[in-house]
Amino acid sequence: MGTYFAKREDITRKWFVVDAAGMPIGRLAVEVAKILRGKHKPTFTPHVDCGDHVIVVNAEKCVLVGANKADEPVYRHSGYPGGLKSVTRGEVLARTPEKAIYRAVKGMLPHNKLGDAMISKLKVHVGPEHSHQAQKPEELKIA
Asked: Which terminal CB of the chain, N or C, has fewer other CB atoms within 10 Å?
C-alpha cells in the first residue's frame, strides 16, 4: 500500500467561526493555524494546502497572558537605513487587534508560498459581526 497524498481536486473546504473573546492570543493562534493548515483532517498532506477557512470574531476581546507580554516589542523595518520601528504588543493589540491576531497566526504557518496561500483563508473581524454568512460557517469551540 502506498502513501496517500491529497490532490487539489479531492480537497473540500469548510468555513469555521471562532470567537476570540477572553482567549489568550497565542492559544487562539495555535488552533486557528491548525485549521488553516488542515492538520485536523485525516487527509492532511504537508506540501498541499488542504486547510479550511477561518473567521475570527471579537478580535478586540482577546488577551495577552504573561507577566511582561504586553511590554514586549514588535519590530518592523522600512528597508531603509535607520528604518527600524518598534511598538509594544499591548499597543498593537489595543490599536489594531486584527493585525495582532493575523501576525500571531502567520508566524505559526510555513514561511513560503504555501503559507501565503493558507493565511489568505483567514478573516479577522473586530466585533461580533462578519460578512461571510453566505458560506454557512460552523462555530468552532476552542477550549
From this structure: N
